[in-house]
Structures are given as structure tokens and as C-alpha cells.
Amino acid sequence: MTLIAFNKPYDVLSQFTDRNAATTRATLSDYIDLPNVYPAGRLDRDSEGLLLLTDDGRLQARIADPKFKLPKTYLVQVEREPDAAALAALRRGVMLKDGPTRPAEVERSDDPALWPRVPPIRVRATIPDCWLRLTIREGRNRQVRRMTAAVGHPTLRLIRWRIGDWTLDGLAPGAWRVA
Asked: How many domains does the chain have?
């Protein structure tokens, strides 16, 4: 069994080929040259961070399938400082168009020492930003972004830091290691 931890850079697709032949978008094949490994879950093109890849179908399902409730922790840069009510709403679970989310663990975080994003996030002189550490146990499409927007704090930058016991610690953008 092979399990790879990959730090997916911004603007890279979480697949090995780009199905849109009219574009030349970066894919996993630009970074990983190993046969028969496949992503266990997804990470949106505009998100960064930990993506696990494996050649074991059962492990892939256990990591990716929300029924196993594997915790996923994100570092989330949002617009403005969320107040206690916004954080409490995230902790209870928020209503999205596709139904309520499960409760999240969330706390404010100091500005993490991270690599610069290319391109950088948009910065507004009159609107401060804040970092959150948010953990969910489900994985809907663009869920974290939709959750922070639902409480009035749009996401500016999103980095998946941890999946279960696997972490991004010490892994540079575009780099991978056997987990």
C-alpha cells in the first residue's frame, strides 16, 4: 500500500488530467510521477494544502467518504474579525442551501507562518482580515467557504492543514512525501 501526502499549491487541479482540452491548467501529474495512486478526496483549485493520494481503494474510501467522519482541519483567512456570535454559529452548524452542516470546531488563530500565495490574496486597506482554525467532519463541495460566507466572513485563503492524523507540517507547496 502506498500513501502520499501532497501539499497542493493554489491553482492546481486535484486530478491527474485536465478534462478541458482548451486550457493548460496545472494538475497532479505536474508534481507527482507515481503510477496507480489516486486522490482520496478533493481540494478545490483555489484552495491549498494537504491532499492524500493512495493506491488502496479501501483506504481511499475511508479518507474521502463523509460517513467515516474523519476530521479535516483548515487554516482559513477571512474578511473582518468574526465576533463571538459568528464563531458560535459555526460551532453549532450553519444552514447552507443543501441543508445544515454538522457542528465545526473553530477558533481564532494567530497569523500562521506560511508560504506566500501566488497570486496573493486581494487586500483591502479598509477591511481587516483574520485567521481561523476550523475543523469539520464532512466534505461538501466548497463547504468551508460557504460556511464562513454564511456567517458574514468570506474566505480569502483556504489551506487544508490536517486530515485525521496526517498533517502538512514541514511539507513545502508542490512537495510530497510517503505518509
From this structure: 2
